[in-house]
């Protein structure tokens, strides 16, 4: 069989290679390439990122040979985080200009809550010395790789008690964002829950907490941080989060106590949620 030749001898065929993200798609509807709508494109990207992370977690074995991420993973993580930070910083500047002009907008408050929340988790990430970027959906935490011979096992003595990894964290491969909440019981609840969650549920949890989702009422759906993020007393859970994810707070009355502290401080009604029996 003779090789295919171009009809024009002065030109050559250009091979069309599959884009990296297309390896993860199961059908054409899941491909975000060419999708114009920003929200839909972001939704598809989050879904494929979550799929890639799940695949890594399934294939991952706890051994010292994989404790450190590759340079390519680190570079991808840095680029992804840089894009998100640029967007959030631009929003912060715009919100400040609106405030100084005497024209603050209600929807900008939600963006500022998101910016402050991401900064808070990033601060806890620095305290923990995470070697991967928690904003990258494909990252795996090195805390979940701790074994008897791990060089990381003794690095947590300097941490606030609220951030010291639990035994469940230390033996379970997981995404690094779980390490950043200053509530040990909630971290364990998240680890157990995400093992049984569907891909769509994990994406919705991430979106509700990190990606500035809003409830039908227009309220913030996630968590709010009012001070040093390592201090549990500076955290507040929203009513929308309790409605959707309250079962994740089982066994952690501390976050209800801290939430009511901030709610009463500004004159809101205290939450009556019972974290010992969230159903």
General description of the model:
The chain is an all-alpha fold. The protein has a domain at 76-265. It has helices at 38-59, 71-100, 106-128, 167-171, 184-196, 199-209, 239-245, 253-265, and strands at residues 223-225, 235-237. Strands 1-2 form a two-stranded antiparallel ribbon. Helix 2 (71-100) runs antiparallel to helix 3. The termini are far apart.
Key features of this structure:
DUF3425, 8 helices, BZIP domain-containing protein, mainly alpha, disordered N terminus, 279 residues
What spatial order of strands do you see in the largest sheet? 1-2
Largest sheet: 2 strands, antiparallel
How confident is the prediction overall: mean pLDDT?
73
Number of strand elements: 2
Secondary structure: elements and pairs:
Blueprint: H1 38-59, H2 71-100, H3 106-128, H4 167-171, H5 184-196, H6 199-209, E1 223-225, E2 235-237, H7 239-245, H8 253-265
Antiparallel strand pairs: 1-2
State the gist of this model.
With 279 residues, the chain is mainly alpha-helical.
